[in-house]
Amino acid sequence: MVILLILAVVILIVATVFVSALTASFTSLEARVDRLSTATPIELRRSGTSVPTGVGGATGRPGHDLAGHDLDGNPLTAAVIGVEHFTLLAFLSSGCSTCGRFWKQLGAGDLPDLGADTRLIVLAKGADAESMTALRSVASGRDVLLSTQAWLDYEVPGTPFFILVDGRSGAVRGEGTAMGWDEVRNLVALGRGDASIVTGISTAAMKPTSDAEREAVIDQLLMDAGVFPGDPSLYPGTTPPEVISP
Amino acid sequence: MSTTLSGYGISASIPKGFEGRITRLDPVDPLSSHAHAVGSSIGIGIETTQPFIHIANVPLTQTRETFGGSVVDTLNANHVFLALIEYGPECVGTNLFSRLGLPRSISPQSFSRSRLQRIVPGQSGHQSFFTHNGRAFCLYIVAGSYARVGSMVHHVNRILRSISISSSLHP
Question: For the purposes of burial, counting CB atoms within 10 Å of the CB of A132, is it exposed (0-12), middle (13-18) or buried (19 or more)?
Fold first, then answer.
């Protein structure tokens, strides 16, 4: 009886320790998930309050062509839909501190590699809502499209804000805010479904080469090493085939 | 579906897939590097303070030469570039600008490789000089492919029919 009682107490202690360990582990995991979710600067809104957005090919809200002025007051329009490329719209303002790093890099010509078929258009609000003197100062000669209407059309919630539009379908493919160009590149990659932008490895390099290309590369390497067609080392334990010279 | 482009007494309806810019450069010293950047205006009477309008179905960047240098190089067979360039008031009434009114319809036969301001293989161009509402203009069009001018012309004519030009830069 005493033995059974001791055994029951031991089992109870072990079970208690096991449950405590599981609880601690879960709490730690939960804390990590919380940290990760708050540290991610991009908010990709799959279904917003008034602007449901499809990211990565789902049905997105429609894009809009742009009309406004440049910093010299010259009128311009820009085609965003009905074109063969993607357009990344960068909504910036002269007053927001986070925009400062984007302006600085744009002014220095330090533009992100968004892929060959993605056009970057920088937008700011018009003279009705922005200081032209401040904008000229931060833009440093960079082409900026001033259009308060574009902010209304795309329901821009604040700055900096980035929207990727697929010109072929005319739909928004991704949107969000960011702290730097790396996050913007991620947004573009997600919207286009193109991992090569994020990894920096071109799609061509990621594709397996064809059999013929692989053979050619191997043949060249062997010949560089002095191993030519018909070399016995290529046929261990067998008789090499007869090689006919051209 | 189209967008309206308007400024300096000129307006145009920009069709889907096209974009436009109206630019009026600041007066510059003819010997400065900027003047050379729009070099086609040097010595033939164009005032760089007159506006020019560019419309194309390719992206129009901030740095474009008056006759489309830096843009026409990007045209492929499906692309077309249109420039409407205003000349100075001293040109009004001269022989070159004696035609009255903006052409509203261009025929494919009016395109030729020899009418390009700068020869780019495969491309063809059109040039018209005219006076409209007392303002002197050159209409310059570049088709990305000489072989496909016919299919591009209807886009061009649609744009031309939508253009309005007032008698003043500041109507």
Answer: middle
Find residue A163's DSSP bridge partners.
A89, A175
- Start and end residues for every CATH 3.40.30.10 domain found in chain A: 66-199
Residues contacting residue B56 through CB under 8 Å, at least 6 positions apart: B18, B19, B20, B68, B71, B75, B79, B80, B81, B82
Does A66-199 carry CATH code 3.40.30.10? Answer: yes
Instruction: Please choose, from the candidates B72, B74, B137, the residue with its C-alpha nearest in 3D space to the C-alpha of residue B103.
Output: B137
Q: Min CA distance, A147 vs chain B (Å)?
A: 13
Q: Which of A65, A72, A76 to mutate to test the interface with B (most CBs of B within 10 A)?
A: A76
Tell me: the pLDDT tens digits for A185-239? 888 888 887 655 555 544 444 343 444 445 545 655 665 566 655 566 766 666 6
Interatomic CA distance for residues A188 and B72, integer angstroms:
28
Size of interface A-B (CB pairs under 8 A): 52
Q: Could you read off the pLDDT of A61-112 as tens digits, one per residue?
A: 899 999 999 999 999 999 999 999 999 999 999 999 999 999 998 888 877 7
